[in-house]
Amino acid sequence: MTNKNLMLPTDSLADINEFNVDNELSKKERIKEFIRQIKDPYRFKCGDIIVESRYSANGLFYEDCLQNIFKNIS
After folding, report:
1. Which of 8, 9, 11, 57 is the most buried if burial means most Cβ atoms within 10 Å?
2. Which residue stretches of the chain are H helix?
3. Nearest CA among 49, 28, 51 for reference residue 41
4. For residues 15 and 38, is the Cβ–Cβ distance under 8 A?
5. pLDDT single digits (tens) 8-65
6. For residues 37-69, b (16+ Cβ closer than 10 Å) or e, as one string?
7. Are 48 and 11 in contact (CB under 8 A)?
8. Domain positions in the chain
């Protein structure tokens, strides 16, 4: 993801709460349908929250990052 992507208007982002993927489809087809609906799996909305996924060179796991966030706010 480039910094240019961060400038896209947030009102055009897909909302994951509005997705509907048929569980009868094969795993491959469900993934294709999810990507078709979300458009950008690295940047989307979940209600009023904007979700952006980025990866760092240090290799930290997502769970570790979340734990660090919760440690700092409690």
Report:
1. 8
2. 27-38, 62-73
3. 51
4. no
5. 577 789 999 998 899 999 999 999 999 999 888 889 999 989 988 877 777 777 788 7
6. ebeeeebbbeeeeeeeeeeeeeeeeeeeeeeee
7. no
8. 3-73
Q: 15: exposed, middle or buried (C-beta count within 10 Å: 0-12, 13-18, 19+)?
A: middle
User: Is the model more confident about 71 or about 32?
Assistant: 32
HSE (side-chain half, CA atoms, 13 Å) at 48: 0
Distance between CA atoms of residues 72 and 44, nearest Å: 25
Structure tokens at 41: 């799996």
Q: Strand, coil or helix: what is 31? A: helix
